[in-house]
Write a structure and sequence with these properties.
290 residues, alpha/beta, Glutaredoxin, Serine Threonine Protein Phosphatase 5, Tetratricopeptide repeat, 3 domains, five-stranded mixed beta sheet, 15 helices, globular
Length: 290
């Protein structure tokens, strides 16, 4: 533990057992920056001190949750971590933004500012209510203006792809995602977006949720109806029920449609913010596969 971490109330080690309360629930009040790192990771050793310095300097405007991916593999799996350091901003109970790689301090400050996080003066109380949420269309307009002003900033194009997805504009979001340079194509946010787009495209022309329920009731082995019902439930917020549909197909007809149930589960895990739920269903999936 660094000296900054040992002396600041704004920095803590996050664990799987406490993640729901210490990070997810706590982010409803204060944004939590999750630093996924490891002792053997060289870039982590340059980024970590920067994040800790800023956590102290920002004086509670955000809290820094340190996650050792070797010790807390379930959290790393829930975030679909493919390289470290990976940093995720959790706010309002969900993932708001993130980045991979050891950014310099100036870019980390820009990242925080982009998400409305500014240093808090000593003695300044926390805001009583979160700032007004920017609409997806307003975000698209803002980012497009920023791209016009700085066309060489490739990371803005990823921001635009994410904003387009939040606005429900699937095809434009896919086009922006496909046009990203290689270094951003593997960014944690890009990986998450790719899974979201995969699920959204599955519902193109699909029946409504009640029709799908009726189809499943009429034919318990209507795998297509179960698959689409699972996607509908997932997107409409009943995550566990949606995952149960995919698990049922995996259990009873594993090879249906070239193993689509497993693919759906993996895509869902990449989009969900609930680390505990993801961990539970990963174990259920593994018990069926191995």
């Amino acid at each position: 533990m660094s000296s900054a971490q040992s002396t600041s109330e704004h920095i803590f080690d996050a664990t799987t057992a406490g993640f729901e309360n210490d990070v997810v629930q706590a982010s409803m009040q204060t944004p939590i920056l999750v630093d996924l790192w490891a002792e053997w990771c060289g870039p982590c050793k340059s980024l970590g001190p920067i994040l800790e310095k800023l956590a102290v300097e920002y004086n509670g405007a955000f809290r820094l949750a340190k996650v050792d991916v070797d010790a807390e593999q379930q959290i790393a799996a829930a975030f679909q971590v493919r390289s470290i350091p990976t940093v995720m901003l959790v706010s309002g109970g969900g993932i708001a933004d993130g980045f991979t790689g050891a950014l310099p301090e100036g870019q980390v400050r820009e990242f925080l500012a982009r998400n409305g996080i500014e240093p808090r003066e000593a003695g300044e109380p926390a805001a009583e209510a979160p700032a007004a949420v920017e609409s997806p269309e307003d975000a698209i307009n803002r980012i497009q203006q920023a791209i016009a002003a700085e066309p060489d900033r490739a990371e803005l194009k990823l921001d635009l792809a994410l904003a387009l997805m939040r606005a429900g504009r699937v095809e434009p979001a896919q086009a922006e995602l496909d046009a990203l340079p290689a270094n951003l194509a593997t960014d944690a946010r890009a990986v998450r977006l790719r899974s979201q787009l995969e699920l959204a495209r599955a519902l193109a022309g699909a029946p409504g949720i009640e029709e799908l329920r009726q189809r499943v009731q009429a034919n318990d082995a209507d795998w297509e109806a179960r698959d689409l019902l699972g996607v509908r439930l997932l997107i409409e917020g009943d995550e566990a029920a949606g995952l149960d549909q995919f698990l049922d197909v995996l259990k009873r007809q594993r090879d249906w449609n070239d193993g689509q149930a497993k693919k759906r589960l993996l895509a869902a895990f990449a989009t969900l913010d609930d680390a505990e739920l993801v961990g539970t269903y990963r174990r259920k999936m593994a018990s069926l596969l191995f």
